[in-house]
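From the pipeline queue, job 12 of 40. The input is one protein chain; the requested action is below.

Action: predict structure.
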Amino acid sequence: MTTDHLDQSQSPAVSPLVLGAMTFGTLIDEKTSFELLDRFVERGGEWIDTADCYAFWLSADGRGGASERIVGRWLAARPGARDRVRIATKVGAEPLWKGSWPEHRAGLSRRAISDAFAGSRQRLGVDHVDLLWLHQEDRATPIEESVDAIADQVAAGTVRRVGASNHPAWRVERARAHATARGTTPIDALQLNATYLRVRPGTRPDGVVHPHGVLSDEQADHARTHRLEIWAYTPLLSGAYDNPAKPIPQVYDHPGNTRRLAAVDAVAGDIGATRGQVVLAWLVSRGIRPILGGSKLHQLDAALDGVALRLDDAQLARLDSAD
């Protein structure tokens, strides 16, 4: 692939993997970010996921925007790229000032959404996004007001789909009911922390600050019943499945997961894959889109190979019954 355009001579099958751009422009420099984006599209990747607040905790000024700027510069440097990818971004979690998060963040009022999304479109250099996420629930704002704000964007043609990240099921369904009643696009996707292992009851993994941020049985049932997509963030436990230098986090340390890891190892041995690849294949088998936030090309390639695996009925049964 050249540095100024995307090779369109081949059209690989569309991958269910989402490329997470969270640390583009902070931990991951522009050159490497472009290489990851190029490889992702070369191999059939479609969805790129970012947010207006990424990655404020890594930036000198304590504000987000770096990730969207990198994606925007990549789109500008790749003629035709916008026709081949779908862009998802989020609003609501940007700190109001350096060090103010999580107590003081933009939130999901009508004005906050309008202002934040205008900034996102400017940084991305796009006239619309394919999916706009309500990033973290805002109990200070009626969910109906947030829905009305998104409806303005849908009516203007700047938003194609609506999603909710880190929201409880009841708030999502209340938002969907309001959107349906006023004849606008309802939420049809959830973004939550999800992987094969299960956290101990009453705990959350590091990085999941919201009490409803880990995919629960109720949220999964809600999504299945109403045909909502589920996107999974941190599906590979930041590499802990396969990197000996990264132990499995303590919140996953319980007997049930000992059995689940043994099942993953058995299936991985059967098909000649890594633990992480089996986890990705299992998530896809359940209709869940995994989000990869890796910083290296070999990590991206391994994940793309993983989501392309097809586990047979016996392998899925072994994974599903290991509790």
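Job complete. Residues 1-9 have pLDDT under 50 and may be disordered.
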